[in-house]
Design a protein that fits this description.
Blueprint: H1 16-22, H2 25-28, H3 32-48, H4 54-73, H5 85-97, H6 110-145, E1 151-156, E2 159-165, H7 166-191, E3 193-194, H8 210-216, E4 221-222, H9 226-231, H10 234-261, E5 268-269, H11 288-311, H12 325-348, E6 351-352, H13 354-361, H14 368-377, H15 382-399, H16 408-414, H17 422-425, H18 428-433, H19 443-458
Parallel strand pairs: 3-4
Antiparallel strand pairs: 1-2, 5-6
Helix pairs in contact: 3-4, 3-6, 3-8, 4-5, 6-7, 6-12, 6-19, 7-10, 7-19, 10-11, 10-12, 11-12, 14-15
């Protein structure tokens, strides 16, 4: 390749080790489409405003379009010795167009150019990630819809607590993922401001039309301060934060699937296509996907920490430290997309062991609260009812029985208010079906939750 575009000030060639250390093309080459789209808009504006001759602007646009086509087809390969994708494209353009190609960089800096490219790239990635999360959410809703009557224990402190349904449990995650979509949309909105025209830090003396470029590239508006335009990476941090929360939700879900697959639970069984075996233990069927997602969650957290620490001590405006933004945010994006795209079919193909869930719910006295509520409905104060029920639970443990199996004579011996109708009140299905307040586990309530989530998904508009 030719000398560095900035080489005029220097009398020596850059040491190869410094060149390799300084180079970013190995990871920022993925932004070539955004870089070329941004350059086409910039060149068009230069011609329309008369900053460069219109005929030269048109040649530059045509040349850039040809470079894009050649990269897409594989005809043009990235030069590993190039400093970055921005210089690579400009150098190829100059080689092809000569002096005309050198006019492309009029009225811009790499500082505002890279700020533009990374925003455009991440906007495109958000547009890909949101439908993935929507599909994941719909998959969860589908499982819920098929398990409205599937009774299982709900837990606190990982101890059996109260009866719920698998549908109710699934819809908790549907709500988490809906919030994740909202965070991604919010990230997109705050990212959607066009920084080109900020120059290196102090804008430019050329009469550029920033809003023309903004409109051509689909931004809502331009950035309002040139210093901020080139030094802002809030949008990277905010997106990585949203992705970290999403990964946290996936990791919690994964943890439960790992437990539910175990012989101790046996609530579900993963399809063979989404499980692995052991090299030494032939009986093993391991939930490796979910374990990897738990591990990769820490990786995304690391990416977020990288971005925060990178930015925390930087003075305005641009500093080379900011080149480290790309590998971190690219890794977070790639990791999230990989995890979701693998998690969806794994979830969709898992088998639900309803009998095991119901059997687990029958143990652990998870209807004790309903027993106390039975007494409250007969006129007793809740704290008194709570104490009486606790005494009954201790009695059941002593006799090796359950509240459902305890004879009515034993109930009456503890409290004469009890009658035969207590057995209907503490029936697990009754316990679930009576919890029909909005947000509760009763089938009628969960149906409303599913309808709400699907309605919200249907109203999501993804800006192309």
């Amino acid at each position: 390749m030719a000398d560095k575009m900035w080489a005029g000030r220097f009398s020596k060639e850059l040491d190869k080790r410094v060149n390799d250390f300084n180079s970013s093309i190995s990871f920022d080459a993925r932004m070539y489409r955004q870089d070329i789209r941004g350059s086409i808009a910039h060149a068009t504006m230069l011609g329309d405003t008369g900053i460069i001759d219109k005929s030269e602007s048109e040649k530059i646009v045509e040349g850039l379009s040809d470079i894009l086509s050649d990269i897409d087809s594989g005809k043009l390969k990235f030069d590993p010795n190039a400093e970055d994708i921005h210089m690579f494209v400009e150098q190829v353009l100059t080689e092809r167009l000569g002096e005309t190609g050198k006019r492309l960089h009029t009225a811009r800096s790499r500082n505002d150019q890279v700020a533009l490219d990374i925003r455009m790239y991440l906007k495109d990635e958000i547009i890909e990630i949101i439908p993935l999360v929507m599909k994941l959410t719909e998959t969860v809703c589908g499982i819920a819809e098929n398990n409205l009557e599937t009774v299982m224990p709900g837990y606190t402190h990982l101890q059996r607590a109260q009866p719920i349904t698998l549908a109710h449990h699934m819809m908790a995650y549907a709500n988490m993922f809906l919030r994740d979509i909202g965070r991604l949309i919010d990230s997109y909105k705050r990212m959607n401001y066009m920084p080109l025209g900020s120059g290196a830090l102090a804008a430019t003396t050329y009469p550029i039309d920033r809003r023309q470029v903004s409109a051509m590239l689909g931004f809502d508006d331009i950035t309002q301060n040139s210093l901020d335009g080139v030094s802002d990476r809030d949008f990277c941090i905010e997106l990585c934060s949203a992705l970290s929360v999403l990964m946290m939700h996936l990791s919690r879900f994964s943890e439960e699937i790992v437990m539910w697959c175990s012989w101790e639970f046996k609530f579900i069984e993963l399809d063979d296509a989404y499980s692995t075996g052991s090299s030494i233990m032939p009986q093993k069927k391991n939930p490796d996907i979910t374990e990897l997602i738990r591990g990769k969650t820490g990786r995304v957290y690391g990416d977020l920490n990288t971005l925060l620490v990178m930015m925390k001590g930087l003075s305005l405006a641009y500093d080379k430290d900011m080149q480290e933004d790309k590998e971190a945010i690219f890794d977070a994006v790639d990791t999230v997309k990989l995890c979701i795209s693998t998690f969806i079919p794994m979830l969709a193909t898992m088998k639900v062991n309803r009998e095991n869930m119901r059997a687990a719910a029958a143990k652990g006295f998870i209807n004790a609260t309903d027993c106390a509520d039975y007494l409250v409905k007969k006129g007793m104060a809740f704290r008194d009812a709570y104490k009486i029920t606790g005494t009954l639970v201790a009695l059941c443990i002593e006799k090796g029985t359950t509240l459902e199996e305890l004879p009515i004579s034993e109930y009456k011996a503890v409290c004469p208010v009890f009658d035969d109708d207590v057995y209907a009140a503490i029936n697990l299905e009754t316990c679930v079906n009576m919890r029909k307040v909005p947000g509760g586990p009763a089938p009628v309530s969960v149906k409303a939750q599913i309808e709400y989530i699907r309605r919200e998904l249907g109203e999501i508009f993804i800006k192309e």
